[in-house]
Design brief:
Layout (H helix, E strand, L loop, with lengths): L1 H21 L6 H8 L6 H11 L3 H4 L15 E2 L14 H18 L8 H22 L8 H8 L8 H11 L11 H4 L2 H23 L4 H23 L6 E6 L5 E7 L1 H8 L2 H5 L1 E5 L8 E5 L11 E5 L2 H13 L4 E5 L5 E2 L4 E2 L6 H5 L7 H6 L7 E10 L5 E7 L11 E5 H7 E7 L5 H6 L5 E3 L11
Parallel strand pairs: 4-6, 5-14, 9-12
Antiparallel strand pairs: 1-10, 2-3, 4-13, 5-6, 7-10, 7-13, 8-9, 10-11, 11-12
Length: 466
């Protein structure tokens, strides 16, 4: 009887699948004939087909009307020294956060080109993220393996991407060191293999923790295991990135490169003197996301770098209100953490982000008409890269015409290591900005008193910036 019942179910299921595959909705011969009318074999279309067949589309769509000399003058610009290079890593968030701070240190102490060690902070970022994953596995040990949160954890055990709140939590906890105290290594510049190996080990550990929990092992014992697991992760990090210094000597130099003082520091004492505590403790994250209600505060669940740190909390605002606060900050000689969809309409040779750089419509004989909200809804656009907002050009009426960011792709990329963006591009592809509280409007300060609406960690709009 059971065999007959199962056979009946199988036949019914098979029939449903077959009907889905062969029923209405597929392309039949008549429909194909209609579809084929979309292309006419005219001389013009043949010329386009021949061109695309042997050329990169991006070179064919360059808008020649937009190739005039680029205006690189800015009415308001915060100066900095030295373009950084994140190399083949996803650490843009880290370079950007540290670049904002170093500009203040350079100005305050009249220093030459200077960088904090990105590798030092990255070391502890990776260790903290490993702990965040393992503790998350312990916290969700009672949930089934196919629970959405459990799945998300095992899909994201470790990454080298992040956001500004990670910079804040890590620096406040571990301090800072100069770059020459813990310089870059091959693995810090090329993170993929190290990340893959540690991620694989973390997934193995995560399964063990869940298995032991299912056998009745208590949480305290699971967390003791976690400490041993993190010791292995620490060893892997040391082998790849080096040993984080506990103390060091720092020779401070003046703007001409001449030594002026030799100081002994720990990472925390160096942060106390050469870091920017105000930036890391008194800031507001702003967002322009037209898919969600404006004038509301949101929190992204589990979107943090340390387990004992802070989730990413932001205020969603219209773009023009964000611009007002950005301009106020730049006028006061203060850079900002800025993120956007950097790959859209980027002329990498000139370092220009402009929606008129490329004319895809004329080449393809169609239009691409989605607005910012629709691009977000369809996963066609989102924040992908963080940079340092450093300049704005205002017209006579005080309205912005273009902006400039300091990038972390090296001096040979873009415009001398910078990217210039038109105000129209800014409107369409800018997403996040971190502003010190002193530049935030009274309205935004009131909005921060709201209880944030919590959004899930897997919301695609909040992928880490790389």
């Amino acid at each position: 009887m059971k065999k007959i019942f199962l056979l009946t179910i199988t036949l019914v299921f098979t029939a449903i699948v077959v009907n889905a595959q062969t029923g209405k909705g597929g392309i039949d011969a008549g429909m194909l004939q209609q579809i084929e009318k979309g292309y006419e074999d005219t001389p013009a279309n043949r010329a386009i087909r021949n061109a695309i067949g042997s050329n990169d589309i991006s070179t064919l769509v360059i808008n020649q009307d937009n190739q005039k000399a680029m205006d690189t003058n800015f009415s308001i610009r915060v100066k900095s020294k030295g373009i950084t290079n994140q190399a083949s890593s996803g650490r843009c968030w880290l370079f950007t956060g540290l670049n904002v701070m170093r500009a203040k240190a350079i100005e305050q102490y009249s220093m030459p080109v200077f960088e904090y060690s990105q590798n030092y902070t990255f070391f502890y970022d990776q260790l903290e993220k490993a702990n965040l994953f393992l503790q998350g596995v312990i916290d969700t040990r009672q949930q089934p393996i196919d629970d959405k949160m459990v799945e998300w954890l095992f899909q994201h055990p470790l990454s080298d991407g992040g956001t500004f709140c990670g910079v804040s939590d890590l620096v406040k906890k571990y301090g800072l060191v100069p770059k020459d105290v813990m310089p870059e290594t091959y693995s810090s510049n090329h993170t993929s293999t190290m990340r893959s190996l540690i991620s694989q080990k973390l997934k193995e550990y995560g399964l063990k923790l869940r298995d032991d929990a299912s056998k009745g092992v208590k949480q305290a014992d699971l967390e003791a295991q976690k400490t041993d697991m993190l010791a292995t992760v620490y060893r892997m990090l040391v082998l790849n990135l080096g040993i984080p210094p506990k103390e060091f000597d720092f020779v401070r130099k003046d703007a001409d490169g001449k030594p002026v003082a030799t100081e002994h520091h720990t990472p925390m004492s160096f942060y106390e003197k050469y870091g920017d505590k105000g930036l890391l403790t008194d800031y507001v994250m702003l967002m322009n996301d037209p898919t969600r209600e404006y004038y509301k505060t949101y929190e992204i669940d589990f979107d943090r770098h340390t387990y004992d740190g802070q989730n990413w909390v932001y205020v969603n605002l219209p773009i023009d209100e964000i611009k007002e606060m950005a301009i106020a900050s730049l006028k006061d000689n203060t850079m900002m953490y800025f993120s956007c969809d950097v790959g859209k309409f980027q002329d990498s040779k000139r370092g220009l982000l402009d929606v008129n750089n490329f004319d895809y419509g004329s080449l393809m004989g169609t239009t691409f008409g989605m607005d910012k909200k629709q691009r977000i809804q369809t996963f066609a656009s989102g924040s992908t890269h963080a940079m340092t907002l450093t300049a704005v050009d205002l017209d006579k009426a005080g309205k912005p015409t273009k902006w400039m960011v300091e990038n972390s792709w090296g001096i040979d990329r873009g415009y001398q290591g910078f990217l210039i963006m038109t105000d129209e591009w800014f409107n369409e592809y800018m997403f996040r900005l971190v502003v010190e509280s002193r530049y935030v409007t009274a309205k935004v300060k009131e909005l921060l008193k709201q209880k944030p609406t919590k959004l899930p960690a897997w919301d695609p709009m909040f992928a880490e910036e790389e």
